[in-house]
């Protein structure tokens, strides 16, 4: 971090999203505010740090891509700033922050944030979230990538957006890493340290995500290979269970491509040695499926896509090493 008599330097990258939305010419709001606009709207923000602003894109976060996040992390690593703050839409932020953590090449803090309310709404939360993110980015205890929303600093491996509109939309099963109170960051636990890196990856393999539901014949699984996907993540029932029909189809897929077993449940890990009936986790793992551990399916898909895009020869070993590190 910067010296005792010098403010830390923070690079702010803006990508659009609700935090940058203003009323459009017709109906609804559109992303239009720049990084400098966002900074200028927060009283006292520039007292915390010397802020550099750059607007990379102005989009809804459903349009963000894996190569864009790779580019941001390259920029974060190369820039002279002490830390980086990324503002974007919240819809995909749990995924982008997780992917960024996989690609992180240093201990430099990178904090993702956004807003649940547009700047023109009563109680707009964007300014507070941006202030808290800069505050976190200047904290010497933060290492690597984190996500800041509603006064809570989250581990991108564990956080998820659980509500479409609540200010408390982002929740972590084990709770946030730190919270903001009285202008300070109060830590609940140390930041996780993981020996994980997809740095340098420029290609991402297409990986499908398919969710299991009752009384479905699994025809979606029949289409995965034909559609050109190179891998698939299956959101199974409960702790990792599929119908017998799905189990057979998943086994057939596992013979030709990586198949990862995750859960459609909102919390908890995939089991590996409890249920033994046909279609349960013991059976599925014996058929070649690989458990996602604590990773939610959306994040398991990103990890698998990056590994396959890197051309990792033993994807199963590499995937499992990452999962076990969580």
UniProtKB/TrEMBL annotation:
Pfam families reported in the protein's UniProt record: Asparaginase (PF00710), Asparaginase_C (PF17763)
Q: Which SMART domains match?
A: Asparaginase
Write out the GO MF terms: asparaginase activity
Q: Which domain of life is it from?
A: Bacteria
Any GO BP? asparagine metabolic process
User: What InterPro entries does the record point to?
Assistant: AsnASE_II, Asp/glu_Ase-like_sf, Asparaginase/glutaminase-like, Asparaginase_C, L-asparaginase_C, L-asparaginase_N, L-asparaginase_N_sf
**Catalytic residues of the enzyme:** 18 (o-isoaspartyl threonine intermediate)
Q: Which residues form the Asparaginase/glutaminase C-terminal domain?
A: 207-312
Q: Where is the L-asparaginase N-terminal domain?
A: 10-190
Q: Which PANTHER family did the record assign?
A: 60 KDA LYSOPHOSPHOLIPASE (PTHR11707:SF28), L-ASPARAGINASE (PTHR11707)
Belongs to which family? Belongs to the asparaginase 1 family.
This one is known as L-asparaginase
